[in-house]
Design goal:
By secondary structure, this protein is an alpha+beta fold. The chain has helices spanning 2-24, 26-31, 84-89, 118-129, 170-173, 182-185, 276-279, 284-333, 347-357, 377-402, 413-424, 426-439, 445-473, 482-509, 535-542, 544-548, 551-562, 570-597, 604-612, 614-629, 635-665, 669-672; strands at residues 47-48, 50-56, 94-95, 100-101, 106-116, 133-138, 141-142, 144-146, 159-162, 164-165, 167-169, 188-190, 193-201, 211-220, 254-266. It contains 22 helices and 15 strands. The chain is elongated, with a radius of gyration of 33 Å.
Length: 677
């Protein structure tokens, strides 16, 4: 037994070594990606296509198509074919009227003049107030903004973010101006002129072609003057800073002229590194040290847990070994005559003496109750089955993400891969749930399969439909089209559900799980437990350690979801994933061991809920993030935030709870001595 306990510690140390090596290479993995497309070579005069993607806001969380606002449109609108992930994100990629030629600078070009009604202007004013951003794409690169405009001497200044604002507040526009009138501060100004900077790289001569490695947009607002006769553009286009800004705070009809300039700048940045400046928008060093600090803390606590468990087991087995020795010695003495006389003890008296000397305490008393099926065994097996499906889906997606196949360069691929892998892993959910349900001596395997495939997914789908109705009511591009909704239902009912049945059928055809003890007919009475063994206390305390493994990384994940930032640190995420799995398993083992030592054999739900409680802390942290980082005030935006957060919490609850349960269950019965001797 001591050897087995030491082996458990050795296993932990090996895992820590692997994680240390993984941490060393995490920074390299974080910026590695497989673009999925071949570099496109542009020669001078070739057409460069500018595509519009969407409008987004961290204030409302409602994405819209670019042409939801009355911008200049091309003669023929051509929507781009999109994958499932792009549609679910609310992307609506379409062509634009901008004409750009490779390596040809355009000083000032009039795009169009729009005659806006008061209703159009009001909509622009509202979207500027709600901090909406415009997202464009050129050569699969998103439009980025910089603090200082690119120049020939500095063609690649640090990016400040993805997308550029629809307009600007008056207070922000005239922040450094003197003698500003109150009316100017209360108005919103439309960005109707854009300076487009295209960064390119070439190894040899430009005549052999160039590759686009950067796309920067510097927006501006200018109230254009009429175009003079004989000129193609107004004078205000050349010097926009000398003219008034284009206000959209008006109750009258107003013509607005849109213009743009294009500048090509050569840079040393190579094509296969062009996404690295985009990834560098986030605070990489802060992220690195924060993650490292979190991981060191969790690994230190995990090492302490492993050492404590080893010492406790050694102490228990030493005590039980001494008791067995005393019992054996007493038994040998009972066979001899008593020194003071010839009378011998009767067989009944000998047996009573043996039972008294062989008195057992702690978890060894409940060996005949420890495998008793739990309360609501059907629900328990369903939750574990669904949790294993979430775990398997996460693992598959993580592997492909770390390898670079699901990088942000492959737009929408991450979400698409998650949906497909989740559907395929339905067979794992069916097998895990069916195997456990059969162990509980359940007979309705079909009902178990239906529950595994439909129960939790049904709850999530119901919340998803309610949120989608909100998006539909506000005409958001995030609303799922009917065809796509039927595709999702087809994947769920036509792929995931049959695979769950296949897994469940395989589980019920397989031999039943064997245990080393028989379960008593009458449950053993559970003695009064100390306060720290109360289920509520254990559940609340048990979720802290797993949550501590993810709470820093959770900040960056939430920022990528709600603040429209690009998430790319899959190496760090995979590392946190491993640490989380270790933490969940160890917490479950320790808490269940303490419970069994108190002669409480109801460990099934405790092993699941004590670790699954980390989802509660995740939800509470989401509330903290909402209050401190977001500026959401609209009721529908609040409903969207907490609706999607509830879905994430449900997934994480089953995910972490299943890891905790399986981590404890997979500890061999010899290690915990669920036997009689």
């Amino acid at each position: 037994v001591s050897t087995q306990s030491t082996g458990f510690s050795v296993l932990i140390m090996k895992l820590l070594s692997i994680i240390s090596i993984f941490l060393f290479f995490s920074s390299t993995v974080a910026v590695f990606y497989v673009p999925g497309v071949q570099p496109k070579n542009y020669k001078k005069g070739d057409e460069v296509v500018l595509q519009v993607e969407r409008l987004s806001s961290s204030v409302t969380q409602l994405p819209y198509g670019y042409y939801f606002l009355n911008f200049c449109r091309p003669k023929v609108l051509k929507p781009e074919s999109e994958n499932l992930g792009e549609i679910l994100r609310g992307d609506r990629i379409e062509n634009s009227p901008y004409e750009i030629k490779a390596l040809v600078d355009t000083k000032c070009q009039v795009l169009c003049t729009q005659n806006y009604t008061a209703e159009d202007l009001k909509l622009f004013h509202t979207k500027i107030s709600e901090q909406y951003k415009i997202h464009w794409i050129i050569d699969n690169l998103p439009a980025m903004t910089t603090k200082d405009a690119p120049t020939k001497d500095n063609p690649l200044p640090p990016y400040t973010g993805e997308g550029f604002p629809v307009g600007i507040y008056g207070a922000e526009a005239f922040a450094n101006a003197e003698n500003t009138q109150k009316e100017q501060l209360e108005q919103n100004y439309l960005h109707n002129h854009v300076n487009i900077f295209l960064l390119y790289h070439t190894k040899d001569s430009e005549d052999d072609g160039v590759k686009i490695v950067g796309f920067v947009v510097d927006p501006d607002s200018v109230k254009h003057t009429p175009t003079p006769a004989g000129k193609e553009y107004p004078d205000s286009c050349l010097n926009p800073n000398q003219y008034e800004r284009q206000s959209v705070t008006s109750s009258k009809n107003l013509p607005v002229t849109f213009t743009y300039s294009v500048t090509w700048l050569r840079t040393t940045l190579e094509w296969h590194h062009r996404w690295e400046p985009i990834f560098a928008v986030q605070a990489g060093k802060v992220h690195w040290f924060s993650i490292l600090n979190s991981i060191v803390i969790v690994l230190f606590l995990s090492s302490m847990v492993a050492v404590i468990m080893t010492n406790i087991l050694k102490s228990d087995f030493k005590r039980y070994s001494e008791m067995s020795t005393i019992a054996a010695t007493t038994a040998s003495l009972l066979t001899e005559d008593v020194e003071t006389g010839d009378k011998k003890l009767s067989e009944q008296e000998k047996e009573e003496r043996k039972r008294e000397e062989k008195e057992e305490t702690g978890w060894k008393l409940i060996y005949a109750d420890v495998f008793r099926p739990p309360f609501l065994s059907m629900l328990f097996s369903v939750l574990v089955g669904f949790g294993t499906q979430v775990f398997s889906c996460s693992l598959i997606t993580m592997v492909f993400s770390v390898l670079g196949f699901l990088s942000p360069a492959s737009r929408g691929s991450l979400l698409t891969a998650m949906i497909i892998s989740f559907a395929v892993t339905g067979i794992i959910a069916g097998y895990a749930s069916g195997r456990l349900y059969k162990f509980f001596q359940g007979q309705s395997w079909k009902r178990n399969a239906y529950m595994t495939a439909l129960f939790v997914q049904g709850v999530v789908f119901l919340i998803f439909i309610i949120l989608d109705l909100i998006l539909y009511a506000y005409k958001s591009s995030g609303h799922i089209p009917t065809k796509v909704l039927f595709v999702l239902l087809a994947i769920w009912i036509g792929v995931s559900l049959p695979l769950v049945f296949v897994g469940s059928y395989m589980a019920f055809r397989a031999p039943a799980l064997e245990v080393p003890t028989k379960t008593n007919v009458i449950p053993r009475e559970i003695p009064l437990q100390p306060w720290y063994s109360h289920p509520i206390v254990c559940v609340l305390l048990g979720g802290i350690l797993p949550f501590s493994a993810i709470f820093i990384e959770l900040y960056f994940i939430l920022s990528s979801i709600w603040l429209d930032q690009i998430y790319y640190l899959f190496g760090f995420l995979a590392l946190v994933f491993i640490v989380l799995a270790i933490a969940c398993s160890e917490v479950s083992i320790v808490l269940c061991y303490i419970q069994l030592c108190g002669e409480d054999w109801r460990w099934w739900w405790r092993s699941f809920l004590s670790v699954g409680a980390s989802a509660l802390y995740l939800f509470l942290y989401s509330i903290f993030y909402f209050c401190t980082r977001l500026q959401i005030t609209h009721s529908y935006s609040i409903a969207l935030y907490f609706g999607y957060t509830t879905i994430i919490t449900i997934f994480f609850f089953t995910f972490s709870g299943s890891i905790g349960f399986l981590g404890f269950l997979l500890v061999r019965e010899e290690d915990l001595c669920f036997n009689q001797g």
